[in-house]
Specification:
The protein has strands at 5-9, 17-19, 56-57, 62-63, 65-68, 72-83, 95-110, 113-114, 126-136, 138-142, 144-156, 159-168, 174-175, 182-183, 187-188, 197-200, 209-212, 243-249, 252-259, 274-287, 292-297, 303-308, 318-324, 329-334. By secondary structure, it is an all-beta fold.
Length: 337
């Protein structure tokens, strides 16, 4: 359901677009919600790695990851547009913009809340076969949850934090592929597996934690050093930067590219700063005069909890991050009454 969060753009457009952002975070095996008990606590193992698999059950069996609905997610938008030509090669000359910001606009998405995006725009009537989003490849999340068994969280003053309540505590940033990349725009990322969540006997106050997507092709090059030495990553050295084509997602064929901050194609993980998302729509948009639309963001199950365990299997499992997956963006419209 996509009634979780809506902001309204108050000029004129008619559109029906479904754009899925960052859907290649994880594609197989772990794509499921955390299993919870009757009280809403996430079902976890008591000690380390259970015989059946890993730490937590995501509905499809034991694993070391599952999805939860966070308190809030934060994204930074630079461009929202409808276009007459393919934008996946970074030619945006055919686009009509709902948002076109050099600095970018931060938007916080919270369950059940509606907030305005106060920008003015005009869309010329016409047929638009493409939809475009440009957003930061750094996304924030606030999350807090209870577990059925004790979890170990980050070190606090020399002692591992422990308890049945855990929350996002340190800002990070982490990376999707776990590499400690030093980004030109975003700064130094943490070493993969560094705990950024804190746990305790009672719920604490969550802070923003951030994750950066500096490599679109992690499924293709797991044996390479990726962002540590991007010259070994063939997908980072092509003429269109790091690029991945998804095929049909929603009502369009989707393509992602990584961009630098200046909107040229990223050439390394380090200089990646934005995601260019193009959706080649199955049914082109017919834009007419005096129509209105809004944008809705899915907020359910958009944070990935990552668990691990200690080798002796006698200590509680360790939870080390809540990786924000950017929510699904729905653009809908209606004719004026």
């Amino acid at each position: 359901m996509f009634k979780n969060n809506t902001f309204y753009l108050t000029k004129k457009i008619i559109a029906l677009v479904v754009i899925f952002l960052f859907t290649n975070f994880f594609t197989t095996g772990v794509s499921a919600s955390c299993t919870v008990d009757a009280s809403g606590a996430i079902v976890t193992a008591q000690y380390g790695k259970p015989v059946t698999g890993s730490v937590v059950n995501n509905g499809g069996g034991a694993t070391d990851m599952c999805q939860v609905t966070p308190i809030a997610t934060q994204i930074k938008l630079f461009k929202l547009a409808v276009c007459k030509q393919d934008t996946s090669y970074n030619d945006l000359s055919s686009c009509q913009y709902m948002l076109n910001s050099t600095e970018g606009i931060f938007h916080t998405i919270e369950m059940g809340k509606t907030t305005p995006l106060n920008v003015a725009f005009t869309i010329e009537p016409g047929i638009y076969p493409y939809a475009l989003v440009v957003m930061s490849n750094k996304t924030g999340v606030k999350s807090s949850f209870q577990t059925t068994n004790t979890m170990v969280g980050r070190d606090v003053d020399g002692t591992w934090s422990q308890g049945n309540y855990c929350w996002t505590d340190l800002p990070g940033p982490t990376t999707v592929n776990g590499e400690a990349t030093n980004f030109v725009e975003h700064g130094q990322a943490l070493v993969g597996g560094t705990p950024i969540l804190r746990c305790g006997a009672t719920a604490g106050t969550p802070n923003w934690s951030y994750e950066i997507k500096g490599d679109l092709s992690t499924d293709d090059d797991n044996d390479l050093t990726r962002c540590i030495n991007p010259n070994t990553n063939a997908n980072q050295t092509g003429p269109y930067g790091d690029r991945i084509e998804f095929g049909l997602i929603g009502n369009g064929n989707a393509t992602q590219n990584l961009l630098k901050m200046d909107d040229s194609f990223a050439t390394t993980c380090e200089n990646s700063a934005k995601i260019l998302w193009t959706s080649a729509l199955i049914t082109p948009l017919n834009i007419v005069k005096d129509s209105a639309f809004d944008l809705k963001f899915k907020q359910t199950d958009v944070a990935w909890l990552s668990f691990t365990w200690f080798d002796n299997n006698t200590a509680p499992p360790l939870i080390y991050k809540a990786g924000p997956q950017s929510p699904e963006l729905h653009i809908t419209a209606s004719d004026p009454k």
